[in-house]
Specification:
single chain; about 300 residues; alpha+beta; Umud Fragment, subunit A; four-stranded antiparallel beta sheet; about 15% helix
């Protein structure tokens, strides 16, 4: 007697009895193509989202805000080593160094807006057009600027300067700025930590803007300078920590920045968005929390 076998659309698994799809059948190929199309569309969406986010980030960095960190004490007490800040790009228009990598997209600046006296700016030093510096604008084109016994003489009149309480900041590295010809500014707080106590003054511009400067060494050789007339297209800048700042008092050959071309300005320092003391070590997570300075976050400049 001949056995009659049921013919199923596809082969069966001996153990489970389930049908295995035929990879060569039209239905299987259609399903595979549908899945491939869906995956391709999903990948394309991800690529577009990542590309859009990248372009947005580049655009924000080029045209709106760019982050910078403070590596030196030249702007004490306003800025501490380890401060991270946003620099606004639009206040003075756009120039070559406003965009990333200093691409030569602009000749001069795309706006006639000048910094205001007292603004804190970030710029490329004329010494090499690569290194970023941060200083305070004191003189604008046409201004006559000189230093006399540690005071600023602007257009023949001294900028108001008044003694205030000493500035106290945490010690950085080996301690406070000192040397053979300088006092030792180190002292201790109530907890026994080393701090630096610097003599400080409030300068007030004729616009009413005030800020604190540090003058560590009265009578220092750099406290008196020759009169300079700021030429067109330039600004005169000073660091707030007057005895530890390479600024417009010194030429590029002397290690300063000289008069800063307006085209070298990156933007105006806007606000601190993060601050971490130099005592933090990447290899020591336990050092991060004590080094965080949350009270500085959000400070406008």
């Amino acid at each position: 007697m001949q056995l009659m076998l049921d013919r199923a659309p596809g082969p069966r698994h001996a153990a489970s009895g389930m049908t295995t799809p035929d990879p060569f059948s039209p239905d299987t190929r259609t399903a595979h193509l549908a899945r491939a199309t869906t995956q391709k569309a999903a990948l394309g969406t991800v690529v577009r989202l990542v590309g859009t986010a990248a372009l947005l980030a580049i655009g924000l960095r080029a045209l709106v805000y760019e982050p910078f960190s403070i590596p030196s004490p030249s702007m004490l007490p306003q800025l501490l080593v380890g401060d991270y800040l946003f620099v606004a790009k639009w206040p003075y228009g756009y120039g070559r160094y406003s965009v990333p990598f200093g691409l030569p997209l602009f000749q001069g600046r795309g706006s006639a807006d000048l910094p205001a006296r007292g603004d804190i700016i970030v710029f490329k030093t004329p010494r090499d057009n690569r290194t970023d510096f941060i200083k305070r604008v004191i003189g604008l084109p046409g201004d006559r600027v000189a230093m006399q016994d540690g005071g600023v003489i602007l257009n023949g009149r001294p900028i108001g300067k008044q003694r205030r309480a000493d500035v106290i900041v945490p010690a950085v590295g080996e301690g406070c700025v000192s040397g053979p010809a300088r006092p030792d500014f180190r002292t201790f707080d109530a907890g026994g930590s080393v701090i630096c106590r610097y003599p400080a003054f409030i300068e007030t511009l004729d616009t009413g803007k005030s800020y604190t400067v540090i003058d560590q060494m009265p009578g220092d050789v750099h406290d008196t300078t020759e009169l300079v007339t700021v030429p067109s297209g330039h600004v005169y800048v000073l660091g707030d920590n007057r005895d530890d700042s390479a600024d417009s008092r010194f030429s590029a050959a002397e290690g300063g920045v000289g008069l800063v071309p307006i085209g070298n300005i990156i933007g105006r320092a806007d606000r601190i968005f993060f601050s971490l003391a130099p005592s933090a070590r990447l290899s020591k997570p336990g050092s991060w929390e004590p080094a965080l300075r949350p009270d500085r976050i959000g400070t406008r400049l």
